[in-house]
Design a protein that fits this description.
heterodimer, A: Rossmann fold, B: 280 residues, mainly alpha, MetI-like fold, ATP hydrolysis activity (chain A), ATP binding (chain A), ABC_transporter-like_CS (chain A), NitT/TauT family transport system ATP-binding protein (chain A), P-loop_NTPase (chain A)
């Protein structure tokens, strides 16, 4: 059996838009190892979200193979939970009800065989409430929570069925900088505790380095993997590491590479000329 | 560490502060007391002007009766002319037409808003029919269903159904994709997604659609009671026209308006009760 748990082999995706074909992904190859924390960065349009959604089974690919434990992925599954940027919580359910949402589903209800299973599940819901610091908000509705709190609920809900993979699509993109730092340490804690494999898409390079064990840098037109970086930081992270030379050096390297591959350049001379002539 | 420099002392300048009116702030807020006062004023003002106009003797009572005459007519209608019967039969017709339309339109709207093939097949057709004037169907309806209660209910049905389907489909389509995809990645089946996510999520919007289309059902009442009727508020208005009983026309129109307003408030109350989790 293959050691890696997700194998992406020569995956491509095209879709038609206004009488031309757009190549969202070309020839993507990646082996995801168990318990990895892979972060995906890249200029907009590089296909990082598309790749994540293909792994989630929410989108299909056009060519190549994508294998989950040697089986082709066919649609979404309870082993791959997804956390979205926003609007994914159920506003008519309380925090606890949101977290326990999956308990109503047949796939999960079928795995319940005894009273102790039921107790274990409600114990898990409580544990997740605690882990996410939501104990005092158990009965609140999502509309009463801040954006950061809402994302905590979304993460807890995704973790509830004990997924092997946690797929996160810019989950902290809409949060302010301070809340985001708190969430970073929280998600690292979750990663250590739950031992799930996390695949994390972001546009924030600092976030990608701080969280990831491996960084996949993607480039647009066509969407492809440009380079992969191993993060030279110890497994246990803390905020001060962001100021260390190796962190900064890696950040500079990645930012430069994203700029080179983005295909969009700000011509400073051109701007200067424009503003000289302009009457402001 | 540098001590922060003390702020230079600024000479006290008397700033002329003219409080700005909070009334005309774009999407501003209003205290509930002021709001209630304005509502009372808005409802009472036209009646006051009407009363003043007739009290000054400016009106020809044949063309425009005063409020006193209309009130007298309502009382005599109630005491001698079977006002309750007229109200009940009209409420029955409107509600029967409306409920019949809702019973078919809501499930159809759910399918239309959920499945693209259904939308592609039916939406243009419904769009086409909805522009046909309901009034023009009267002769056909009489030919097909006769002149009993069925024909009146059918006219109201034709007037509301097609709008209702399209609005319900739109409500269903507005359910955020992230809510649906989150359920998919937790292993929800198609029927579970519809039952546990789409329907609960769209409920407030669907209730709003019912509230609005119920108002439209009332506007079709007079048209429906054109059909070989001998009872009902709409019929009473039409008959009063024949005898130039303008006070009765006024009374009938005002009564329909009042019943409509009460129904509308009932729907709003129901919405506030049932969907208390909504942000307001």
């Amino acid at each position: 059996m293959d050691q890696s748990c997700i194998s992406i082999r020569n995956v491509g995706k095209q879709f038609a838009a206004r009488n031309q074909t757009i190549e969202a992904l070309r020839d993507v190859n990646l082996e995801v190892q168990p318990n990895e924390f892979i972060t995906f960065v890249g200029a907009s349009g590089c296909g990082k979200s598309t790749l994540l959604r293909i792994m989630a089974g929410l989108e299909t690919h056009s060519s190549g193979d994508i294998l989950l434990r040697s089986e082709p992925i066919d649609g979404p599954g309870v082993d791959r939970a997804m956390v979205f940027q926003h609007y994914s919580l159920y506003p008519w359910l309380t925090v606890t009800e949101n977290i326990k949402f999956c308990r109503q589903l047949k796939v999960i209800a079928d795995s319940v065989h005894s009273q102790s299973d039921v107790e274990a599940a409600s114990g898990r819901a409580d544990a997740l409430l605690n882990l996410m610091g939501l104990k005092n908000f158990a009965g609140a509705y999502p509309s009463q929570l801040s954006g950061g709190m809402q994302q905590r609920v979304a993460i807890a809900r995704a973790l509830m069925p004990r997924p092997d993979f946690l797929l996160m699509d810019e989950p902290f993109g809409a949060l302010d900088a301070q809340t985001r730092e708190v969430m970073h340490d929280l998600i690292l804690h979750v990663h250590r505790l739950e031992k799930s494999t996390i695949l994390f898409v972001t546009h924030d390079v600092e976030e990608a380095i701080y969280l990831g064990t491996r960084i996949v840098l993607m480039a647009p037109r066509p969407g492809r993997i440009d380079s992969v970086y191993e993060v030279p930081l110890p497994k246990v992270r803390h905020q001060d590491m962001k100021l260390e030379p190796e962190f900064i050096a890696l950040k500079r390297e990645i930012l430069t590479r994203i700029r080179e591959t983005s295909g969009v350049q700000t011509d400073l001379d051109q701007l200067a000329r424009l503003s000289e002539g302009a009457v402001l | 560490m540098n001590a922060p420099a003390p702020l230079p002392e600024t000479p006290a300048v008397a700033v002329k502060h003219k409080p700005r009116s909070r009334w005309w702030v774009v999407r501003g807020s209003l205290s509930s007391r002021t709001s209630a006062l304005l509502t009372a004023f808005g409802l009472a003002a036209p009646f006051f002007i009407w009363w003043l106009y007739s009290a000054l003797g400016l009106n020809d009572p044949l063309f425009m009766p005063g409020p006193g005459a209309v009130l007298e007519r309502v009382i005599s209608w109630w005491q001698e002319d079977g006002l309750w019967d007229d109200i009940w039969i009209s409420v029955y017709r409107v509600m029967a037409g409306f409920l019949l339309s809702a019973t078919i339109a809501l499930p159809l709207g759910l399918y239309l808003g959920t499945y693209k093939p259904v939308q592609a097949t039916l939406e243009p057709l419904i769009d086409f029919i909805r522009y046909m004037p309901a009034v023009a169907f009267i002769p056909l309806v009489m030919l097909w269903v006769g002149i009993g209660e069925g024909s009146k209910i059918l006219i109201i049905f034709i007037g509301t159904f097609f709008q209702m389907v399209l609005m319900a489909a739109e409500d269903i389509r507005r359910v955020p994709m992230a809510q649906i995809e989150a359920a998919q990645t937790m292993g929800a089946s198609r029927s579970e997604i519809i039952r546990l996510v789409v329907l609960p999520s769209a409920r407030p919007a669907l209730l709003d659609t019912l509230r609005i289309t119920c108002g439209w059902a009332w506007t079709y009442l007079v048209v429906a009671e054109l059909v070989a009727s001998n009872s009902g508020l709409g019929y009473a208005i039409l008959r009063a026209q024949r005898y130039m009983h303008t006070d009765k026309i006024f009374a009938g129109i005002l009564l329909i308006g009042l019943i409509g307003l009460l129904t509308d408030q009932a729907f709003r109350w129901l919405g506030r009760r049932a969907f208390h989790w909504q942000k307001r």
